Structure formats: structure tokens, C-alpha cells
């Protein structure tokens, strides 16, 4: 799973589903709808012209709208957004499994390949939507730090996947919503309640159960991959990745919907690729995999990670954020299953306990945010 990107998609998905503002519609015969039975009484000025606005579809030009006779309105498939979320979690988990299977390829190089796939996907979108490559002047500094922190989160996450058990790294990254609430309270002055503090403490407890520091659990730590030194480095990298991903979400909240989704990903991919190339040059680690299987895994990681992000974004466009965040906890379940089946590594009870703490905290945070947004929506309707 690649949470840093899943979290970013969650933060900016509303912007993804929104086309750049432009002329709404024209009554020049280009539309194929039939006359609407509910024209509004008022008129809307549009330059030198005047056009009537549909009474049943706000913003749509009359006499063409979704409620016109003979027009079929698309109905959302119940549970489709949750299915997209489940599919996204599965793709992220499989991509993480392939990352564990790759040999003799540094995590920074894997990140560089991922950035190349992101750029290849986003470039046509930038050209189509005519967003430019730099963005609004007042937002460029935020986009730069979004790219820097987002790419750093990806590199650190990939490193954690390589040096520690798959389930352990996945569970730690799911503490991102809790850190997001804390950072939003500090920098955006958002409300931070006693419940948020409780969820934060639960998350820290879960991370401690997974990390199992020797001063609490003794020197004989079982159920880890390799040495405890590598396990500790992976834990620190996973926590740093989580904080970086949470910082990215806070930045995206600050930017709001004024920047197109594709432009945000573009900064993420370009800055990430530049950073990866510099690091690989300094470390002298850049090399193509010797094994053809590893090359296939690199390509699949890019494709599956991109597919996971697309499905997560689609899910957030048609489903509320609360249910999506809860369904994404299946990522942890997939990580445990894949680790047992393909890596022959049974998680310890400490890991299971830590997973329960982190998943409960993340789900609780998501449910609270969901209820708060629902209450605000009801108040606005009143």
C-alpha cells in the first residue's frame, strides 16, 4: 500500500472531479437534451446575452437539462465507491508485495521509476486542461513543498517496506489521519478535541507495540526481518513518511480547490524525480536490475500504484470520505494476508495489537470528521 498517495488523493479528490471553470453550456444546438418542463422564472446575464437557467438543474441552461422528458439520468450504483476503495487498497498492497520481492534495487530508484510513471500519466492531462506547468504565482511555494514532502513520504515508505515486515510498515502508515488532525490544529487552527488527543495516544501506543523498543520489551525481539537495527530504521522511516504525508494533506487543505489535481501530482512527480536522481547520483546507486523479473516488478509497481490512486480518487468522487476512510483499513488486512501467503512471515501478537490500536484510531478520526461534515451540511440546508 502507498498511503502517502492515498492520503493525498483523499485530500484533493474534490478538485479532481471538478472541471476547470469555463462557460457552462450554450444553446447553439450542440446539446442533445430535450426541452425542460421546469424553467426558472429568472434570467442569468452572460455577457451581452441573456440565458434562462433551468429550474430543476441549477447552473444548466434551459431548455436542456437532466429532467427533460426522454432524458435518462444516470443513477449511481450502490456501493460502487466502496468497491473502488477496496480495489484501490488491493492494488496498493500488491504493489507493496512486489516491492518486497525486488532484490538489489534501492528504494530511491524504485521511487524514481514511480515518478516517471506519474509524469507520463499527468502530462496529457495538463495539456488537455491547459493548467500550465507552474500554477498560480501565489500557490507555487505551497506546490513546491507539497511535491517535496509528498515525494519524501514515498521514498521513506518504500525504504520501510524493504527493511521491515510488510504488515508492520502498512500499519504505521495508517496513523496518518491522526497526525493530520494534529498538524491541522497547529497550522490551520482547526479544532482539536479530547477525542483527537485520545486517538493520538492510541496511535502512539500502536506504533510502540510494533516498534518494540528494547528499553520496554528487552533485547530479544522476535518476529522481525533481519536485525533489530534495520527494524528500528524502518520504523523511523515509516513514521517520518506518515508525518510527511500528513503535512502534504495540510498543505493541500491550505491550497484548497484553486489548483487543479493534475498540477498537484505534476509537482509531486517532477520534484520527486529530481530529488531521486540527485540522491542516486550521490549514493552511486543508479543501475538497472540485473534480473528480468525485477524489471517486470518495477513496471508493475508503477502501474498498480497509479491504478490504486485513480480508483481511490474515483471512490472519493462518488462516495463520502468517512466510509471510504473506514474501507481503506482493508489495506491492513490485505497486508497481513499477503505477508503470510507470499512472504511466509507470520505477524506477532504485538503487531496484531498495534494494528488494532492504529486502525481503531484512524477509523475513529474518520468517523468524527464524517459526522462533523454531515452536521455542517444539514445546517447549511436549513
From TrEMBL:
<feature type="transmembrane region" description="Helical">
    <location>
        <begin position="235"/>
        <end position="253"/>
    </location>
</feature>
<dbReference type="GO" id="GO:0051480">
    <property type="term" value="P:regulation of cytosolic calcium ion concentration"/>
</dbReference>
<feature type="domain" description="EamA">
    <location>
        <begin position="233"/>
        <end position="362"/>
    </location>
</feature>
<dbReference type="GO" id="GO:0005886">
    <property type="term" value="C:plasma membrane"/>
</dbReference>
<feature type="transmembrane region" description="Helical">
    <location>
        <begin position="111"/>
        <end position="129"/>
    </location>
</feature>
<dbReference type="InterPro" id="IPR000620">
    <property type="entry name" value="EamA_dom"/>
</dbReference>
<feature type="compositionally biased region" description="Basic and acidic residues">
    <location>
        <begin position="18"/>
        <end position="31"/>
    </location>
</feature>
<feature type="transmembrane region" description="Helical">
    <location>
        <begin position="325"/>
        <end position="343"/>
    </location>
</feature>
<keyword id="KW-0677">Repeat</keyword>
<keyword id="KW-1003">Cell membrane</keyword>
<feature type="transmembrane region" description="Helical">
    <location>
        <begin position="167"/>
        <end position="188"/>
    </location>
</feature>
<dbReference type="GO" id="GO:0005789">
    <property type="term" value="C:endoplasmic reticulum membrane"/>
</dbReference>
<feature type="transmembrane region" description="Helical">
    <location>
        <begin position="141"/>
        <end position="161"/>
    </location>
</feature>
<feature type="transmembrane region" description="Helical">
    <location>
        <begin position="349"/>
        <end position="367"/>
    </location>
</feature>
<dbReference type="InterPro" id="IPR037185">
    <property type="entry name" value="EmrE-like"/>
</dbReference>
<feature type="region of interest" description="Disordered">
    <location>
        <begin position="13"/>
        <end position="34"/>
    </location>
</feature>
<comment type="function">
    <text>May play a role in intracellular calcium sensing and homeostasis. May act as a negative regulator of plasma membrane calcium-transporting ATPases preventing calcium efflux from the cell.</text>
</comment>
<keyword id="KW-0472">Membrane</keyword>
<protein>
    <recommendedName>
        <fullName>Solute carrier family 35 member G1</fullName>
    </recommendedName>
</protein>
<feature type="transmembrane region" description="Helical">
    <location>
        <begin position="81"/>
        <end position="99"/>
    </location>
</feature>
<keyword id="KW-0256">Endoplasmic reticulum</keyword>
<comment type="subunit">
    <text>Interacts with STIM1; stimulated by depletion of intracellular calcium. Interacts with ORAI1. Interacts with the plasma membrane calcium-transporting ATPases ATP2B1 and ATP2B4. Interacts with ATP1A1, ATP2A2, KPNB1 and XPO1.</text>
</comment>
<feature type="transmembrane region" description="Helical">
    <location>
        <begin position="195"/>
        <end position="215"/>
    </location>
</feature>
<dbReference type="GO" id="GO:1990034">
    <property type="term" value="P:calcium ion export across plasma membrane"/>
</dbReference>
<keyword id="KW-1133">Transmembrane helix</keyword>
<feature type="transmembrane region" description="Helical">
    <location>
        <begin position="295"/>
        <end position="313"/>
    </location>
</feature>
<feature type="transmembrane region" description="Helical">
    <location>
        <begin position="265"/>
        <end position="283"/>
    </location>
</feature>
<dbReference type="Pfam" id="PF00892">
    <property type="entry name" value="EamA"/>
</dbReference>
<feature type="domain" description="EamA">
    <location>
        <begin position="80"/>
        <end position="211"/>
    </location>
</feature>
<comment type="similarity">
    <text>Belongs to the TMEM20 family.</text>
</comment>
<keyword id="KW-0812">Transmembrane</keyword>
Amino acid at each position: 500500500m502507498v498511503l502517502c498517495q492515498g492520503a493525498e488523493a483523499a485530500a484533493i479528490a474534490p478538485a479532481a472531479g471538478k472541471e476547470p471553470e469555463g462557460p457552462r453550456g450554450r444553446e447553439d444546438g450542440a446539446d442533445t437534451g430535450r426541452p425542460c418542463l421546469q424553467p426558472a422564472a429568472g434570467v442569468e446575464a452572460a455577457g451581452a446575452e441573456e440565458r434562462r437557467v433551468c429550474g430543476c438543474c441549477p447552473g444548466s441552461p434551459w431548455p436542456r437539462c437532466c429532467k427533460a422528458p426522454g432524458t435518462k439520468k444516470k443513477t449511481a450504483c450502490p456501493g460502487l465507491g466502496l468497491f473502488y476503495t477496496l480495489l484501490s487498497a488491493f492494488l496498493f498492497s500488491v504493489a507493496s508485495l512486489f516491492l518486497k520481492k525486488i532484490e538489489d534495487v534501492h528504494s530511491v530508484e524504485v521511487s524514481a521509476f514511480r515518478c516517471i510513471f506519474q509524469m507520463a500519466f499527468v502530462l496529457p492531462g495538463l495539456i488537455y486542461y491547459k493548467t500550465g506547468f507552474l500554477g498560480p504565482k501565489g500557490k507555487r511555494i505551497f506546490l513546491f513543498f507539497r511535491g517535496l514532502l509528498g515525494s519524501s513520504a514515498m521514498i521513506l515508505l518504500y525504504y520501510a517496506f524493504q527493511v521491515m515486515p510488510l504488515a508492520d510498515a502498512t500499519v504505521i502508515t495508517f496513523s496518518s489521519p491522526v497526525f493530520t488532525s494534529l498538524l491541522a490544529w497547529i497550522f490551520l487552527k482547526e479544532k482539536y478535541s479530547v477525542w483527537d488527543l485520545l486517538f493520538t495516544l492510541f496511535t502512539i501506543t500502536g506504533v510502540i507495540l510494533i516498534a518494540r523498543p528494547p528499553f520496554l520489551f528487552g533485547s530479544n525481539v522476535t518476529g522481525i526481518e533481519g536485525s533489530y537495527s534495520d527494524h528500528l530504521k524502518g520504523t523511523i522511516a515509516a513514521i517520518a513518511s506518515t508525518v510527511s504525508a500528513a503535512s502534504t494533506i495540510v498543505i493541500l487543505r491550505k491550497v484548497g480547490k484553486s489548483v487543479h489535481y493534475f498540477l498537484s501530482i505534476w509537482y509531486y512527480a517532477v520534484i520527486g524525480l529530481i530529488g531521486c536522481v540527485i540522491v542516486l547520483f550521490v549514493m552511486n546507486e543508479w543501475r538497472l536490475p540485473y534480473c528480468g523479473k525485477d524489471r517486470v516488478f518495477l513496471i508493475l509497481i508503477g502501474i498498480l500504484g497509479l491504478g490504486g490512486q485513480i480508483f481511490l480518487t474515483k471512490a472519493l468522487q462518488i462516495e463520502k470520505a468517512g466510509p471510504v476512510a473506514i474501507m481503506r483499513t482493508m489495506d491492513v488486512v490485505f497486508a497481513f494476508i499477503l505477508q503470510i501467503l507470499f512472504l511466509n512471515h507470520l505477524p506477532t501478537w504485538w503487531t496484531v495489537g498495534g494494528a488494532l490500536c492504529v486502525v481503531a484510531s484512524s477509523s475513529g478520526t474518520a468517523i468524527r470528521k464524517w459526522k462533523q461534515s454531515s452536521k455542517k451540511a444539514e445546517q447549511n440546508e436549513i
